[in-house]
Recover the amino acids of this structure.
């Protein structure tokens, strides 16, 4: 059975004469809605045509086939989300991060189908051109964060930390769409707190992250930040060496 259960009810929205661009947008919107709720292989061209009130031939005319339609739909969602992630430049790094999250979740709320379609599915759906589209959004978000933090080239510990946080934001967006049992503002504050917590953990592994965190949170003295055991051992050895040298 097709994704929409078209064979059961046979109902189609009335067709309307639309401009080329408007008709294409409606087909993409219908496809995004279907792809957000079903695996791509379970959605047919007939499903999209029925949902958009268009003919099967018209869908093929605009997109050539389902794969082309799938890619076009994801590109549309990705372009809109990347536009929302343009750096604004106001406030400190954490304020900018919070502002970026607000714009991100504006997209999640206003374009739920596009967001879910963009991120839905497993590794099998993330290869080739589709994988590049999804990764492009993640890279844009990563570059935005790095720019806001004033970092030229993140080291391994910071890079892993930031990529992990981006994955957490994606998961939080999908979870919020599914449950909506948490206020958006509260979720955004939670994610900012998670970023700080992840940076605190990474600061014990990379002195550069420690300096960065002190810059982001100047009200917290360095003595309150976590220290990795290996770093503490090295500091103890240095203090012992200094004490030995001080003995006459």
């Amino acid at each position: 059975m097709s994704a929409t259960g078209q064979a059961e009810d046979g109902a189609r929205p009335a067709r309307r004469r639309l401009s080329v661009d408007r008709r294409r947008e409606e087909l993409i919107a219908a496809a995004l809605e279907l792809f957000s709720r079903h695996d791509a292989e379970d959605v047919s061209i007939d499903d999209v045509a029925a949902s958009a009130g268009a003919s099967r031939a018209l869908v093929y005319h605009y997109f050539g086939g389902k794969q082309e339609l799938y890619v076009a739909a994801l590109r549309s969602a990705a372009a809109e989300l990347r536009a929302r992630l343009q750096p604004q430049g106001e406030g400190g790094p954490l304020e900018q991060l919070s502002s970026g999250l607000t714009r991100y979740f504006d997209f999640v709320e206003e374009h739920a189908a596009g967001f879910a379609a963009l991120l839905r599915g497993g590794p099998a759906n993330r290869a080739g051109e589709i994988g590049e589209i999804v990764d492009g959004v993640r890279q844009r978000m990563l570059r935005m964060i790095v720019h806001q933090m004033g970092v030229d080239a993140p080291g391994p510990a910071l890079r892993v930390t930031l990529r992990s946080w981006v994955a957490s934001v994606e998961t939080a967006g999908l979870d919020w769409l599914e449950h909506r049992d948490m206020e958006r503002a509260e979720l955004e504050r939670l994610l900012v707190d998670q970023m700080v917590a992840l940076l605190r953990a990474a600061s014990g592994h990379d002195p550069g992250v420690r300096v960065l965190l002190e810059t982001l949170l100047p009200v917290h003295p360095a003595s309150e930040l976590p220290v990795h055991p290996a770093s503490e051992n090295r500091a103890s050895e240095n203090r012992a060496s200094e004490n030995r040298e001080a003995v006459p």
Notes: Residues 156-179 form the longest helix (24 residues).
